[in-house]
Q: What sequence folds into this?
């Protein structure tokens, strides 16, 4: 009995750690990698062309690689929770929205996964931060207009 309880607690802790890793990792994909990539490109290059090449080549590649890692973590998370594997699902959640079923039936048949919600939310937050920075915090490259 105590061994089963300990196993359940450890399984819940592992699931929580994986879920936290997915949420934090999703934010890192959209916010941390671009910021770190621009900083690293600035440190490693001396010309504007080199900076542009490093940033445009490195940042998307790093985002794709880290996104693939997050989806592997999501497969572990889904497997730990006892759900079906992603490949075994009959229909993606985004495809279900194009049918004429009622919303409750759609969500029951193809619920949104944690990785989908985390990636979408973190992308929206990153876009909002970009807009706030661009319109309110960034100075004009031309200097003050007179």
A:
């Amino acid at each position: 009995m105590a061994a089963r309880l300990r196993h359940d607690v450890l399984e819940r802790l592992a699931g929580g750690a994986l879920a936290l890793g997915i949420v934090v990792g999703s934010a890192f994909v959209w916010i941390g990698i671009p910021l770190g990539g621009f900083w690293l490109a600035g440190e490693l290059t001396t010309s504007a062309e080199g900076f542009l090449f490093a940033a445009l080549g490195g940042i998307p590649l790093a985002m794709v690689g880290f996104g693939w890692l997050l989806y592997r973590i999501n497969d572990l998370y889904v497997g730990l929770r006892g759900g079906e594997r992603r490949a075994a699902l009959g229909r993606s959640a985004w495809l279900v929205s194009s049918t004429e079923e009622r919303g409750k039936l759609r969500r029951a048949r193809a619920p949104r996964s944690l990785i989908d919600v985390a990636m979408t939310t973190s992308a929206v937050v990153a876009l909002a931060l970009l807009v706030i920075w661009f319109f309110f915090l960034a100075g004009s490259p031309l200097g003050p207009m007179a």
In short: The radius of gyration is 21 Å.
